[in-house]
Write a structure and sequence with these properties.
The protein has 180 residues and is mainly alpha-helical. The protein is 82% helix and 0% strand. Helix 2 packs across helix 4, helix 3 runs antiparallel to helix 4 (83-103) and helix 4 runs antiparallel to helix 5. The protein is globular, with a radius of gyration of 16 Å. The chain starts with a helix and ends with a helix. The mean pLDDT is 89.
Length: 180
């Protein structure tokens, strides 16, 4: 392996670790506020920015691993059965961002459509996973506040987090001088 590839690999690994720490740290800090909208918007912002600023694999790792770490650190609802579905919802969100923002590179209106599609995809995945599979198929009873947290709140936070990412991405890209 040449030095350039090694250097890029170390950079990506470092970026992924920092974004993962940022996401879990955000969850821990914002949890104290007791507002899922603040926490969720920040999480979705970090997921989208991970993908836009770094790469799809970075966003994928951050999205898949962060629910496990959040559970281990006690900043997630205490139901391990939710973790695979949260990870899957994050992966779908990141994948939608990765695919759609490459299709709609320059047009603001089309990137706005990408924000909506990614948010709806994440919401649909989480709703199906929690309300249909966990509750109806597996038969696990979850408290009403947990069920409410995995309904339209997810759509709203994904839309807001995606919009924040979409609007701040050019500034962050310029400030960090990176190419997605």
């Amino acid at each position: 392996m040449n030095a350039s590839k090694t250097k890029k690999g170390i950079l990506r690994l470092t970026q992924t670790a920092l974004l993962l720490a940022l996401l879990v740290g955000w969850q821990a800090l914002s949890r104290g506020l007791g507002n899922q909208y603040i926490t969720g918007c920040g999480v979705n912002f970090i997921l989208a920015i991970s993908t836009l600023l770094c790469s799809f694999p970075t966003g994928l790792c951050v999205g898949a691993i962060s629910p496990v770490l959040a559970m281990l650190f006690g900043v997630a609802p205490p139901f391990w059965i939710l973790v695979p579905f949260i990870s899957l919802g994050n992966i779908v969100y990141v994948a939608a961002w990765a695919i759609l923002t490459r299709l709609f590179t320059e047009r603001a209106l089309m990137r706005s459509v990408a924000v909506v599609i990614a948010a709806v995809a994440k919401f649909g995945t989480l709703y199906l996973g929690v309300h249909v599979i966990i509750v109806n198929v597996i038969g696990t009873k979850l408290p009403p506040p947990v069920l409410a947290a995995f309904s339209f709140t997810q759509l709203i936070t994904a839309l807001i987090g995606g919009t924040l990412a979409f609007t701040t991405f050019p500034l962050l890209k310029k400030a960090l001088r990176t190419n997605p």
